[in-house]
Each structure stands twice: as C-alpha cells, then as structure tokens.
Amino acid sequence: MTAKNELTKSLMASIWFMFLTFPIMVIRVNTVTDTIEWRWQNMFAVGFGAFFLSMLWRYLIRKKEMSGKKDSQSRKSPIYQVIRDQKFALPGLAAIAVFTILFPHIFSMYQTNIMISALIYVMLGLGLNIVIGLAGLLDLGYVAFFAVGAYSYALLNLHYGITFWIALPLGGLLGAVAGIILGYPVLRLRGDYLAIVTLGFGEIIRLVMENWNEFSFGPSGIANIPKPGFFGMELSLHATTIYIFYTIVALVIFTIFVINRLENSRIGRAWIALKDDEIACQAMGIDKARTKLRAFALGATWAGMGGVVFAAKTTFINPASFTIWESVIILCTVVLGGMGSIPGVICGAMLLILLPEYLRDFGEFRMITFGSVLVLMMVFRPGGMIENVRKTYQFKK
Amino acid sequence: MDLEYFFQLFLGGLTRGSIYALIALGYTMVYGIIQLINFAHGEIYMIGAFTGLIVSSVLTMVGMPIPAVVILAAMAAIIYSCSYGYTMEKIAYKPLRKAPRLSALISAIGMSLFLQNYVLLAQTSDFLPFPSLIPDFDFWEPYAHIITSPELVIIMTTVVVMILLTFLIKFTKIGKAMRATSQDKMMAALLGINVDKVISVTFIVGSATAAIGGILIASHIGQINFYMGFIAGIKAFVAAVLGGIGSIPGAVLGALVLGWTESFFAGYISSDYEDVFAFLFLVLILIFRPSGILGRSETQKV
Amino acid sequence: MKPILEVKNMTMDFGGLRAIDSLDITINQGEIIALIGPNGAGKTTFFNCITGIYTPTSGDIHISPPHGEPQRINGLKPNVITKKGLARTFQNIRLFTSMTVLENVMIGCHAVTKAGVLGAIFRGPATKAEESRIVEKSYSILEKMGLARYVNDLAVNLPYGAQRRLEIARAMATDPFLLLLDEPAAGMNPQETRALDELILRLRDREGVAILLIEHDMKLVMSLSEKIYVVDYGKKIGEGTPEEIRNNPAVIKAYLGEEIDA
C-alpha cells in the first residue's frame, strides 16, 4: 500500500516536472532563422530524474521531521570531537602544515593559482562568518568590501606607487572603515531588511565603479597591477606565485587566529548574545549599535585584505568581479560549511571553489549548483556540513 | 518648461510604475502572508516572459493568426509562472516555515540563483528579441505621440488587474482567508482555514500578476534575457517597501512613485545612474521610513 | 529616606491608545515596591518606558544613584540605562539560549568591563585578569542565587524556576542599584515562590538593591512589599502599604474582589 502510494507520488512529481520544464527545457526557438529545436531527450531526463529525486526528497523530509523531535542539543558533531581531541588535532595540524608548505612545489603553477583563489575565498568566508555566523547579521553586500580592498591597492599603486605590503594593511583598514560607513545607517534594520539594504549598498558601489570613469576607469577596469615584490626584488612569475601562495596561507592562519580569539572574548560573547536576543542583550548594558558595527568592521577587514591579494594575484580588476552574485557565492561557502564554524567555512570554501575548477564539465553548472546548495542546505541541514558547536566556557572550581 | 515633454515623462513614469506595480504585488502579498522577501519573485516574472516568447514563436511559426497567438501565449505565460511559483513555495519555503526568517531568505536567494541559471543553461545567455504583441491601434493614432497604444494597454491592464485583485481580496472567501492568515496564522488554522492552501494561492496569484507584467514589459522593450528578473525584481521590491510592504494599495502607490521619480530623474537630470538611483531610494526608505508610505510600523513585543 | 527613582506624570501613547496615563511613582533606597494591576493595565509598558525600550510620550523619569549624579533618563537607550544602574528581568524569560548558565551571567558583566578588540586579539595580562574577574564574579553570583550546580549547563535546559532565578542573577551582574522584576514568580510552584520571597529579601538586605516588582501572586506581593502601587487602564488607582491596599475600595473594584483576600 505505502509502496504503491510512494510510486504514485513519484509518478505525479515526474509528470508535474515534465510539464513544468517543458517550454524552457524542450523547446528552443531560434529567432534569427525561425526554426524550432525540440529537445525531447531533456523531457525524459527530467521525468526520470524527478521520479527518483522526489522519492529521495520525501525520504529526507521524513527523516528530518523524525530527527527534529529529538533533543537538538544532544547531537554532537563528530568532526568537532576529533578537532578538539588533542590526540588527533596535533598530528592532523602537522599533516596539513606539511602539505601546505610542500603544495606549490609538488603541484603545478596552475594548481597553485587555483589554490590561491580558494584561499582568498576562505579568507572572505571567514570574514563574512563573523558578520553572519557570530553576530547573526545577513550581509549581502559583502563583496563591496572586497572591491574596496582591490580598488584601494590598484588606485593607490597607480597614483602614488604604494606597494603591496603597505596596501595590505591599508586595504584592511579601508575595508573596516567602509564596513562602519555602510554599517552605521543600517543598524536599526531587522534581519531581512538588513540583507536587502546591504545588497543595495553593494550594488551601488559596483555601479558607481562602473559609471565613474575618471575615478575607477569604468567597466574597462585597471590593468597591470604589480604583483608583490620581495624586499624590493622583482621575482620571476613562478616565484611570485609561490610567494603569493605563502602570503595568503599566512593571512588565512592569521585570520583564523584572530577570529578564534575574538569568538572566545568579551566581544565574541556579546555577538552571540546579540544573535540570541537583541532586547535582552541591551538590557544587559550591551551597546547594540557598537557591537554590530564592530562585527561589520571586523568582517570587512578581511574582505579588504582579500581584495588587495586578489588585485595583486590577477593584476587586473574591473567591476564585473564584484557583482552581487559574488557576495552570494561567499554566503554559499559559509552556509555550506556551517555558519559560525571555522573549520566548516574553510571546508565549504575549498569545496565550492575547487570542485568546479577540477570537474571541468561541471564549470557551466557552477552557479546553478550554488543555487541548489543554498536551498538544500537550508531545508535539510541549516547548520551546514560541519555544524558549529560553540566552545562554551567550562567553569572549573 | 516644455509641457508636452513633462507630460511624456509623466506618462512614461506611469507606464513604468504600472509594470513595477504588477511585480510588486507578488512581493507584497507573499510578505503579507508569510513575512518572507521572496527574492526569486523576479525570476518568476522572467520565466513568464520566456514562456510567452517560446509559445508565441512556436504558434506564429505554425501559422496561427496573431490575436490567437497573443491570447494563447499570455495564457501559457500565466499558467507557467503560476506553476513555478507554486512549486517554488513547496520546495524552497514550505519546509522552512518554522525555521528562522534568515534561513528562508537564504533559500530564496538560492532559488533565484537556480532559476536564473536554469534558464541560462536551457535557453541562452543572449538577449532574445521579443515580438511586439500589442499592435498600434489605428483609432489611437491621433494621440500616439503622447502615449503609444502599447503603453496605454499596459496602464489599462494594470488597472484591471488591480480591480480584480481588490475584488478577490475584499469579497471572496479565499480573500478573507488570506487576510485572516496574514493577521495570525495560528488563529486562522484554528478556525479551520487551510493555511497551506492560502499560502499556495497567494504564490499563484502573485506569480500570475508577475507573468502579466513580464509579457507586457517584454513586448514593450522588445527583448528579454535570463537576467531581466533580477533588476526588475529589485525595483519592484523597492516599490513594495516604499508603499509599505504587506499593503496592496501601498505596492501600487510605491510603484507609481518609483516609476515617476525614475522617469523624471532620467528625463531632466541624467540617465547614467538610473539603477544606482533605485538602490539609493531603497536604502533611504529602509533607513528612514522602513514601514513605507502606507505601512503600519510594527512595535516589537517585549 | 532618599528617593532613587522618581517618575513624574509619565504618559505613554501608542497611536490613539493611552497605555500609561500620567503615572507618578517614587522609590526610595532599599525599598521593595510592587506594581500590581489586572492584565493589560500597562505594567510591563511602564517597565519598558523606564528601561528605555520605549520613550514615554511625556513626563519625567529621574534617578538619583547612591553613588552618582541625579539625572533625567527619559529617552536614553536601554543599554545606557542599564549602565546607570537599573537592571531588569523579563516577563517571558529571555535568556541567551545558546549559552551556558555561567556565560549568561558573564554577559551581565559586559556593562562593567571594558576589554576591546585589541585586548581580545592580543589577550594581554589586563584582559586575562579581567576575564578571570568576570568568571569569579559570575560564579559568586550564581552561588548566591543557588544556581552554582548548573554552572556549565545550557541555560535552556534549566528547570523553569531556575531560569527565572538566572534572569535575576544576570541582572545582578550589571551591578544595579534598582532591580526591576517583571512577574518573577510566574509559573513557579509554591515552594519555588517561597524561595523567591527569601531571595528577594536577601538581595535587598545583603546587596542593598531597591526592588520594583510586577507580580500577580498576591501572597508574595503582600508579604514582600513596603509599598504597593495599583494601576488599571494605565492610571494609578491606589497606592499605600499592603494593609491600605487590601482595604482600598477602588482596588477591590478593579480586581472584582478576587485574590485580594488571599
């Protein structure tokens, strides 16, 4: 009876999705030659896929409803238990360290470059994680701070010849300032409005960069941004890539260190309290505005620095690199990895950036996958791959 | 000051505003019922336009007479938009009804990204020419230099849709159920209202108006692509927020205000920063009057 | 006796609705004062006005902290008011659910500590010392509240009565001179209520805080308070000692005689 029921449901879903995707997936009109292409194979693929996916979907939904009834606090993430166990943590860290140091020497320059991109995203994800994961503020304009960093380096270098190592802290600082400037007006806004306004700010910055030719060179962008030099020495292309690689690795470690310290401090506690309950938080004497601004500024700092590294790595920037969808990708790395969870965000960013690079044919499906990831994670695993288990303060007398 | 130019800008703004209004209605209705910013609403409108284009092209090639093509294409667009809206709610929002609001918003962003790229992959990333479905009526010829007949049709359609919608919400049973649900979901359910059904109907109605907007604007501008929903969606959202999100007359008023402001700004000052302007508008309203023109300000319970 | 809180002629309107109508209330140092009245009388609104969640439409709120300048606090932000020494609990418990009992109280210390971003990153001796001070202080408050055995538990997993006590503990961590308790006994069983009675007295006698409480449990109110204010429809309809209130016809009328003889 139930099996028959399941089959009927799946069959209905299959028919429904065939109907739904019919015009878009099956018919393609060529308006120049006035011909129609019928792609019936797509219809069968959809029907077939929908049949099984709907079964899987219902199974997962049921499973989620069952587990939802259990005490959610009793679930402990096994990954966290491993990470926090000294026995595994130290050898694990050592292995990762050795691998990282050897990476650019074992793998090709192409691989190293991809790894640099992934690490930039790790840094961005960790920064956004402060804002979303710790303070609970959904920032959809995060890429604006990345742009601020990238443009700071490009423009300061172009006009004043400022070098990478001076631009790096400066980019972070300007990112933080931008975070405060953009954060200040939105302090009073509630969650979803905040998301939309930050999105608006992000787009405003991009559109201004696109239209203000005298300042930012418009859509054509800025080229020939120098790569970092090594104490004034010019390095070969190969050496520079390795150099940038180690730089970004160091920055990521620095980021993790700082975020970890912040999380377990008076400020981190205030963020978590703010996320839990704003009103109670204020009643405890916590300045809501200040706490939020700190989150914005400290989140934006990493984006600013990431932007400087990005500009130095690609040697060319234009507004097209800083669209809202870039913010969404960063959001995706945080959501997939696990909001608030540092190892989660690192894995999320690595996975989302490296997978499309290595699965060549997968490249064009990148964005559609990101979209699905956001929806599916929210529906089935809102805590992310590595759900954050906050390290609470353990009192010992 | 040139009065005729002013008048042109005024009517241009009215046309623009009418289309924003059609899309804004969906935002505001959905927000009114489940307090979700349906980020993917613009994509529904884009899918309406694509379906309209595909169906009308196929039918034209088959050799069907123009009026029949227009009617069938419009119907297909509406049906498909509604179906997508319905399915989207079932997949991306219904499982999250008890989840934090941010989860649903992230899911909506994912849906938006998914639908855009779905159309991009299945169709094309290029701009497609869209046939002008609304002919220039002969009898309107003498007035066409002030307002073209397609513009007139857009405005008239919007008015008709508004009247129908007001009727639906004020006088029908499902309309009453919608109003009850938006006030208090739990209470409505206790009184025997099928909340799931009401939410579905809201998505369907909102999608239908978006589809109408989609075909009208596509036929007016003459081209479409997979990304058209995003910026239109944002502008409609601005309109909905401007009027007071959750309020239907507010959405229309907000849309008209936005349409006029854009039109006059572009006509008298500069059209370079047109999109910046919409975003700036959004940011300013949300900061200074988040409840909008007609919205009630909500006080948080302590 | 010296008044530490004086509310004069305070009115609060929500649109056309007058939730509080020219209310006067005075609290002296070391007093326990109760604010009673039927549901919807405007008691919680009164708390919200004093603690800065709402800004009253008109009237004055003056405080004279025992160790500070007298000042008017209308329209100040809630966190500023807390820093000035007014702490509160909430009718519907608002603990930080993802935090432990100790961490909840540590948050209460936020107002009286100051480690900043750089302190957090470098974790120098000053920051470390401050952190251990916060922990010590929080633990000692928990001990006083009889919550020490829950110290590392998540706040949400506590029994209901303990959650209410934790709210008080958290408020005490802000070093208040006046504690505002919004229905502290709601949902408690008789034993818990008796324990609460003792706890409140102890807070006043040993910690020297004045207490303003909203409460429906008349037994608790009558046994604890030195003075009672009765409000109905936002207006003060009576004030006086428990004895006077018991015999006040207007109050009896407002309550339809119920509970008043308890």
Helix content of chain B: over 70%
The computed structural class of chain A is mainly alpha
Tell me, what's the shape of chain B? globular
Number of helices of chain A: 16
CATH architecture term of the largest domain in chain A? Orthogonal Bundle
Estimate the helix proportion of chain A, in percent: over 70%
Sheet bearing the most strands of chain B, described? Answer: 2 strands, antiparallel
**Using DSSP, what is the number of strands of chain B?**
2
**Binned strand content of chain B:** under 5%
Count of β-strands of chain A: 2
Mean pLDDT of chain A: 86
Number of domains of chain B: 1
Looking at CATH, which topology of chain B would you report? Answer: ABC transporter involved in vitamin B12 uptake, BtuC
Distance between the termini of chain B: 54 Å
Largest sheet of chain A: 2 strands, antiparallel
| Main sheet strand line-up of chain B | 1-2
Q: Which sequence of SSEs, written as H and E, runs from N to C of chain B?
A: HHHHEHHHHEHHH
The shape of chain A is globular
Low-confidence blocks of residues of chain A? none
Tell me the distance between the termini of chain A. Answer: 60 Å
| Overall average residue pLDDT of chain B | 86
Task: List its traits.
heterotrimer; B: 302 residues; mainly alpha; ABC transporter involved in vitamin B12 uptake, BtuC; 11 helices; 2 strands; globular; C: alpha/beta; four-stranded antiparallel sheet
Descriptive overview:
The complex is a heterotrimer of chains A (397), B (302) and C (262). Chain A is mainly α and 397 residues long. Chain A has 16 helices and 2 strands. Chain A folds into 2 domains: 66 residues, no CATH class; 302 residues, ABC transporter involved in vitamin B12 uptake, BtuC (Orthogonal Bundle). A two-stranded antiparallel ribbon of chain A has the order 1-2. Chain B has a single domain, classed as ABC transporter involved in vitamin B12 uptake, BtuC. A two-stranded antiparallel ribbon of chain B has the order 1-2. The radius of gyration of chain B is 19 Å and the shape is globular. The N and C termini of chain B lie far apart (54 Å). In chain B, 51% of the residues are buried. By secondary structure, chain C is α/β, with parallel strands linked by helices. Chain C has a domain of 162 residues: Rossmann fold (3-Layer(aba) Sandwich), CATH 3.40.50. Chain C contains 10 helices and 10 strands. Chain C has a 6-stranded mixed β-sheet with strand order 6-7-8-3-9-10, sandwiched between helices. Chain C is globular and about 60 Å long. The mean pLDDT of chain C is 88. Classes of the chains: A mainly alpha (397), B mainly alpha (302), C alpha/beta (262). The interface between A and B is large, with 58 and 62 residues.
